[in-house]
Structure formats: C-alpha cells, structure tokens
Amino acid sequence: MGSRNRERRKAKQKARANRVRAQAPESGAGAFYQEERGQREMFRRIADQLVAAALNAQLARDEAALAEYVELLVAAPGGPAGRRVVNRSLAGWFDRTVEAAWQRGWQPADVHRIVNRQAGQRQARLAVDAIAGQMRQYAAATVDERWKNQLYDLNAVLWWEDDGTWLDAWGDREGRDRAEALADTLGLLTLLHTLPAIESLCPPPGTTRRDPPGRPAGRGHGQADPGHRAGAGRSADPRILDKVRALLAKAESTGFADEAEALTAKAQQLMARHSIDEALLAAREGTRDEPAGRRVGVDSPYEAAKASLLDVVAGANRCRSVWTKNLGFATVIGFQPDLDAVELLYTSLLVQATAAMMQAGSRHGRSRTRSFRQSFLASFAVRIGQRLTAATEQASEQAAVEAGESRLLPVLAARGDAVKEAAETMFPQVVARAVNATDGEGWASGRAAADLASLHTYGEVTTARSR
C-alpha cells in the first residue's frame, strides 16, 4: 500500500472516530451518562427547593409543614446517592449563609458565641464545621490575621472527606439520627440567616489583607499563632501574652490570697510595660497605628454588672466599651496592646469577683439572692474603676517625669483622641445606662472585695513599665 493510501486511510479513520464521539451523547453510554447527570441535577434542584421550603416553614413557625419537609429530605430518592445530594445541597446553603454573615460584620468567634448562646453547644459545634467548610474558598492571602486566630481558637478545620457524607458523619459523632441531624442543620441555617448586621471590625475574607507592620504572617487557615492578635496596628508580643495568661491562670487557681496578688501584679506589670513601650515606639518610628475593635462576650447572669466591670477596665486602659445586650457581647475600641490588657484583666477580675461574691454570700447566708449578687458585682465594678483610674493617672504622671512630659503626654493625648473618634464613628448613638443595685449589704461587700482584689500594685506596675 502506497504512502498516500495509508495517509488517506488514517484520515478516514480519524474522521469516523470524530463522528462517533460527536454522536455518543445521543445514544449508548453517552446517553446514559447524560441522563444520569441530568437526574443528579434534577435531584439537586429538588433538594434546594425542599431546604428553602423548610427554612420558610421554620421562619413562619409552621411546625407541621417543617416536619413534612424534613420527612421528604430524609426519604430522598436514590438511596445513599440521594442522601449525598441532600448533604451537598445543605453544604452549599451553609456556604452562602455563612458568607452573608461575614458581609454583615460577623466574625467566626461572634458566630460561635451567638449560636452557643441561642441554640446550645451541639449546634455551636455544627456552626464550627459550617465555618470551616465555607473558608475553603478563600486564598490565605485574603484572610485577615484576626480571622485566622479565631479559626485557630475554634479548631475550625475540615475533618470530613466529602460534603456528600459530611452530615451523616456529623450525625454519627453527635449521636443524632438522620431526621435529628437535618433538624439541627435547618435550625442553624435559620439562626444564621436572621443574624442582624453589626459593626465591621476587620475586612471579611476574600478582600485584601492588612497585616500589622513588622509582624509575620499567620500559618494559614486555622494555623495562626494563638497569641498573635493582629489588627490595624501593633499587637502585643505573643510571648508577653503567653506569660500573662500563665500568671493569671495561676492567680485564679491558687487558694492563697497573697500568692494570687503577687501573680496578678506581675501580670499587670508585664502588660503595662509593654503598652507604654509600644506607644512610644510607634511615635518614635512615625507609625500610623489606628484604634481597632474587639468583641468580648458578656454572659448571663448579671450581664449589666459584668458589662459595667468591662467598661471601667476599658476606661482605665484608654479604651472604650459599648455593650450590645441582646447579642451577648461588648465591643471594646482601643489600640491593640490596650485591648489585650483589657481582655486579660477583665477576665481575671471577673473570676476574682465571682469567687469573692460566692464567699461573701455564703457568710451572709444570701449567696443565692439575685439582688445581693447584682449589687455585689455593681459595687465591685465601681470601686475597681475608681482604683484603676487613680492608678492610671498616677502612673501616667510618673511616666511623664521619667520619659519626658513633652514626649509622652502628646502621644497619650493623641491616642485618646483617636480612640474617642473611632468609638463615636462606630457607635454614634450610644446610650449610657446605670446598673441597679438594691441590696445595701451586697453593695458594701462588693466594695470591700474590690479593695482586696489583686490590684493594689497597679500604679507601681504601670510606673515600672514606663522606664
């Protein structure tokens, strides 16, 4: 056979193969796979519609309709394949709903807190999974460091292999059957869907990340340094925070008042020294640090008294606090090292105040009286605020002498003005409210406990930090 004939035969074979491939979707195996894909897409659309109908029934509090839709989702056609279609549909709903929450100002820690507060721990764990799944779509370079820290704290990681089996695996872990797992999922989707818009404290994922100057980037989603609280400015040194946390943990666990006092004083000294050093360093380098915001949980009971305690601690550390009662948190506005100090000090003082309240209540035989406890905590907060404010003023005066008044005071004044402006911009209509204290014995006991709290060296500590 000549070379030309061979070439013509190859050309004909190639043309015939192309015609077969072109005709395959219309017959034989091609038609089968096309039909199968069409069925899967149809099942997916049906699943999406059933989920939407179930959510609407839940929002309308139509229990009968909701139960009917859950039954239909449980009895998905196609056996295991149908269950996988429903699971993937729900995963897609979570992706869209969680992303919408980010756009409304919510962060991972906020979502976990509100779900735990309103729906309980089981659905809070489900929310962590939903967050981990949604975060897959973002490049690490578009996720703010504060976001990564929260993912790390929540352990928001992908532990399942496929979205098609995720809900079944989650149900097995939680001891929930198919109908219960679907009810949990629909309940969480409804809660997330109805979250209100709140103040945005940092860029949502998917936008340009802004890291603090001179700080290393995090280690990826869920892998950031847990001590690195990054934001719009210099953050506290993770090594300092680790030491402070260790000291406060020992102070809260010891049964010896003198030891707790010494440990707390040392922790305060570390934070105070670091805060002033950072302010002076930023001024010397000409760094344009900006105030940032941090949300701190304020849990029941006695939320008003606890919010008051946080407010006075924030004020003494040149920050401002705004309590959002219905959502269970307060937003603290300030510079990063001061925010770290507020959060750590507030947490430690709350532990001390609670222990002192229980002890005082037991002595008076009124430990279970709500009015006693409310009055105790309110008085504790007022007295702590007075002591902290006086100590801060004394420390600032001493620091001005040692560092030079012309050098330090303008720095602190500029920071104070910046925090005030940021707070008023973020919360233009804040209403101040007093905490009711109706129990005189509780008020007196709270004041006495505040006098005994581990703060008597606060002035000495902040002075030492200015050196």
From TrEMBL:
Residues 1-30, 200-236 are annotated as: Disordered. Residues 239-278 form the DUF2786 domain. Residues 305-413 form the DUF7168 domain. It holds the Pfam family DUF2786. The lineage of its organism: Bacteria, Bacillati, Actinomycetota, Actinomycetes, Frankiales. This is Uncharacterized protein. It comes from Frankia casuarinae (strain DSM 45818 / CECT 9043 / HFP020203 / CcI3). Residues 1-19 have a biased composition (Basic residues).
